[in-house]
Design a protein that fits this description.
The complex is a heterodimer of chains A (324) and B (332). Chain A has a single domain (10-319), classed as ABC transporter involved in vitamin B12 uptake, BtuC (Orthogonal Bundle), CATH 1.10.3470. Chain A contains 15 helices and 2 strands. Chain A has helices spanning 2-7, 11-27, 37-62, 70-84, 89-113, 118-137, 147-154, 163-181, 183-193, 195-200, 205-231, 239-252, 264-283, 289-305, 310-321, and strands at residues 142-143, 233-234. Chain A has a two-stranded antiparallel sheet. In chain A, α3 (37-62) packs antiparallel against α11, α4 (70-84) runs parallel beside α6 and α8 (163-181) packs across α9. Chain B is an all-alpha fold. Chain B has a domain at 73-164 and 186-263. Helices cover 71% and strands 0% of the residues of chain B. Chain B contains 13 helices and no strands. In chain B, α4 (90-108) packs across α10 (225-251), α5 (110-135) runs antiparallel to α10 and α11 (262-273) crosses α12 (284-303). The chains are: A mainly alpha (324), B mainly alpha (332).
Chain lengths: 324, 332
Amino acid sequence: MRAFLRTDQHVRPLGLLALCIVVLTLADWGQGRFLSGATAFSTFEIFATTGPVALGLGLTMMIREFDLSVIGMFNLAGCIAVITGGGSPWIGLGLALAAGLAGGFAQGFIIVRLRLGSVAVTLGGLLVFNGLALVLSENRSLPYDNMPLALDLKAPLAAVLSIRSVVALTIFAVAAVVMAVTRIGRDVIAIGSDRRAAMIAGVDVNELMIGIFAFSGVCAALSGVLLSYSLASASVSEASVILVPAAASAILGGVSLGGGTGRPLGIGIGVLVLAVLGTGFNAIGAPPYVNDIAMGAILLTVAILDGPYLIRRLSGLRRRAAPH
Amino acid sequence: MSEPMSPWRKGPAVPAMPKRWRQLVVGGRRRLVVIRAAFTIGLAVLALTTPGFLSRPSLSALLTTVSFVGCVAVGMTLITLSGNIMSFSLGALVGVTAMIFTAASNWGGLAFGFAAALAAGALMNAAQGLVIGWAGANPIVTSIAALALIYGAVEAIGAGATVYPQADVSYGIFKRGIVGIPFEFITFMFVTVIGQLILFFTIFGRNLYMVGGSLRAAEAVGVRAWRTISGAYLWAGVFSALAGIMLAIRYSSADMDFGLGYEYQAIAAVLVGGTVVKGGEGSVVQTFAGTLIIAIIEVVLLLKGLRQEWQYLLAGLLVLAVVVLQTRGTGD
């Protein structure tokens, strides 16, 4: 049991989630603002927005890459869906997901075939997708004339969920099952740990990498479409709105920046941690900047602790400080 | 971002590249020079034949607007050269230094405003550089964290709103310009010259190219890479702060929207100018050219009646093309 607690990658994010809930409950003691159905509902609504993006980004981080283009695809998919989904929302959804798949696939193909760094290529992708989204939306908010759909997507299911959050949760469940029971899961970890060794061991590195970038594109697109449909409008949002929480949740969920660690459910819990913090701070009346600062502090701490030279530098300092 | 140098290093798998891809890659270098020259000439012809381009108001507006992003791009060049790709927080830094400049000028006069804004920009960015260089923290994640922290801190201090200069603070002398050239563009040229002098004539500059080219090799010959990387971030902070100050002066106000999206426009200018995204190769003068190229495209598109959004799309396509063509098949 102790070995399980120490090695299972879900323990740390789960512990963090529990800690957040306990601290916020104590901060709100006796006032009932935090532990309520409304807070839980908005927590899952935030989960539905950032969750799929964080999952796609997290998977690319697990193979030691980084997909910056998720924000661009998130914006672009929303615009495509709202523009083409006038007749039937399914057409908009289908076209937006196709764009996500094609965009992700193209980037993965370039990265693998030309052996380019993923940050550089997806930076190009981000600028292109965002540019397309700006051209399509003419840099204003595009209205979507389907209020019933927006209300349906936001209507509470089983008190705390909505169609949108059920979709997001389903993606996480499917990804978790696929990663746990099929070869893909082990192969992803192998690529992230030591790509050359994975290739020698017979993993089809290139195919899997392209697949993960395509998946990341689809996830970002899906998230963008669902948000635009539920808001009944699409616009190009700022990078920080979605990239900061997505990266932070993947890291909180146990994905290391060096690749090779992390699980889909862990990422899901990481998203929940941030969502709980966001709605919790809001519920107990903390000002909105607390959330920004908390997220920034978490990201910075993890970036420093994950820094490959930190241990060496610290032991160097200790040696210098010790008397000779 | 360094890799161990053993042949078994981690990193992208190294399958034999198909021949047609390899050719594209190996010939890419020379081809890129030809493509860039042809592109620049084509652009110049297009610009000069577009009615209205050479008119004075059009040129003056172009030179002014290009300078804000230009200064940030010069700073971003140093970060890219150091091997850390880009910083996501430079846009936020522009906004916050503009606000610091305005608030500090109100309190202690213009000179104090300049000093406070430049020092704040240098410190905030050098801190990031220190974390990245000393602990080896991931530069992308560090700058995203800094972005969130800067926005959070600005709101926490209660300065979420716009800051205006007091009536007794006059920016008049900075709004005139010299022989018809806007003051902003003179600053941009000055920053470019300073940046280029730093790169070519100081030990720091020489070290920067070495660290960006190969961090391990630089450390092996005794370069303290963390100092060099921190220095690159520090200068990037100073140059971004200059952009913030110029914006605050031009608009006689300051808020966090000032630098919105500047980091993307800046990295686009850096890459279009030809600085290699992996670091170690490129220069500030090239970024100057890259900034002008993107700005000229913008003006030509506007004069041809296309909306401004097309400029972002075109810049994105240019960056993607440059990234793909830049490769020399060395992995990473």
